[in-house]
Write a structure and sequence with these properties.
CATH class of the largest domain: Alpha Beta
Structural class: alpha/beta
Keywords: Aminotransferase, Pyridoxal phosphate, Transferase
Strand order of the largest sheet: 1-9-8-5-4-2-3
GO molecular function: pyridoxal phosphate binding; transaminase activity
CATH superfamily of the largest domain: Type I PLP-dependent aspartate aminotransferase-like (Major domain)
Family: Belongs to the DegT/DnrJ/EryC1 family.
InterPro entries: DegT/StrS_aminotransferase, PyrdxlP-dep_Trfase, PyrdxlP-dep_Trfase_major
CATH topology of the largest domain: Aspartate Aminotransferase, domain 2
Protein name: DegT/DnrJ/EryC1/StrS family aminotransferase
Length: 386
């Protein structure tokens, strides 16, 4: 029997998740908790909250950032802050929260197909989807690969549309030495535990000016502008002090986190570089990378299809994920929309049936990564053996 295949059968091997949050040593977090207990200020624009907003602006290279308790509430609030109505052009190839945020604001999503290479919105298809009811474009920087921000912003200027970027994956990413978060009217980040930078749960809106930030800050606190005055039907989206403190600690470890992710990414790329049927996801050369995900496309040249490989990895206790499957447009809530027709989304439909995201996180040990690689390559070995 092939030695690689036989090595996979060891019942002592542990479960490998697709991702894990980076957790700095607990001893480093204790002083923050003690300070919160001393101040007895646990939420609503506390000291750590203010410090984290300032620190993130500095780290990300932006001027105005508002923290939220999670990224979905941030996206819902961004749409409300810009008073978006009618129809919004967006992608079906994303996590469902992208479109849910539209739904919660009473906005109709209009799906446009994705680009074959980047898997972001295909900018050549956007113009044809614009109608008199279109008010905005909601693109996603999928897998932290920046959209064609120049083309999208030009289209938006031409047709008088707003642009809100779902930048949930794109923490710290830069385009031609400029933060990707500076493009469009707003960008929304997620700090969920699965992300490169996390605050357990959390998120943020990056906007262009101080006036807009004040409106966002009011909206995330029920619409209050002072103790007795409510100016808008806001929501409770505030980040608490424990989350903010953890974020401050996380920022101190970002260099290590990115370096570890880069190491894992490089190892996968070396292992799969010349394997027929495995297409590696590439990022434009003028963009920085944060190594948020490691997606591969399993095409017909590979001995098994994507779902068979997914099941084989699960059998060997490796939790790869089919990001994003099904498409948002295929969920019952949205599949009745005219733009959800598979004939309108052929590239996204194919991608959703090919993409598999392999585990990548700072705590992934080299021997566990090799185990993942061995499971994938065993499909090739078995095919050759027949």
């Amino acid at each position: 029997m092939n030695t690689r295949v036989s090595a996979l059968a060891d019942p002592k091997q542990g479960f490998i998740p697709v991702t894990q949050p980076y957790l700095p040593p607990l001893a480093e977090f204790t002083p923050y908790l003690e300070e919160i207990w001393r101040r007895k200020w646990v939420t609503n624009n506390g000291v750590f909250h203010q410090q984290l907003e300032e620190a993130l602006c500095d780290y990300l290279g932006v001027e105005h950032l508002s923290l939220f308790s999670n990224g979905t509430l941030a996206l819902i609030t961004a749409l409300q802050a810009l008073k978006i109505t009618g129809e919004v052009i967006t992608t079906p190839f994303s996590f469902v929260a992208t479109t849910h945020a539209l739904h919660w604001n009473g906005i109709k999503p209009v799906f446009v197909d994705i680009d074959q290479t980047s898997m972001n919105l295909d900018v050549t298809k956007i113009e044809a989807a614009i109608t008199p009811q279109t008010t905005a474009i909601l693109p996603v920087h999928v897998y932290a690969n920046p959209c064609d921000v120049g083309a999208i912003d030009t289209l938006a200027d031409t047709y008088g549309l707003r642009v809100i970027y779902d930048a949930a994956h794109a923490f710290g990413v830069r385009v031609r030495e400029r933060s990707v978060l500076e493009f469009g009217d707003m960008s929304v980040l997620s700090f969920h535990g699965t992300k490169v930078f996390n605050t357990f749960e959390g998120g943020a809106i990056v906007c262009r000016d101080a006036k807009t930030k004040r409106r966002i800050d009011n909206l995330k606190n029920f619409g209050f502008i002072d103790e007795t005055t409510v100016v808008a039907p806001g929501i409770n989206g505030k980040m608490n002090e424990v989350q903010a403190a953890f974020g401050l600690l996380q920022l101190q470890h970002m260099e290590h986190v990115i370096a570890q992710r880069a190491r894992i990414d490089a190892c996968y790329r070396e292992a799969f570089a010349n394997v027929p049927g495995i297409v590696l996801h590439e990022v434009a050369p003028d963009c920085s990378r944060n190594f948020a995900y490691f997606p591969v496309r399993i095409t017909r040249e590979f001995p098994v299809d994507r779902d068979s490989l997914y099941e084989k990895l699960r059998k060997h206790q490796v939790a790869a994920r089919r990001y994003f499957f099904p498409l948002i447009s295929e969920f019952p809530t949205y599949r009745g929309l005219p733009s959800s027709a598979p004939s309108n989304l052929p590239v996204a439909t194919e991608a959703s049936r090919q993409v598999l995201c392999l585990p990548i996180y700072p705590g992934l040990e080299a021997h566990d990564q090799q185990r993942i690689i061995d499971v994938v390559l065993s499909c090739v070995d078995e095919d050759r053996a027949h």
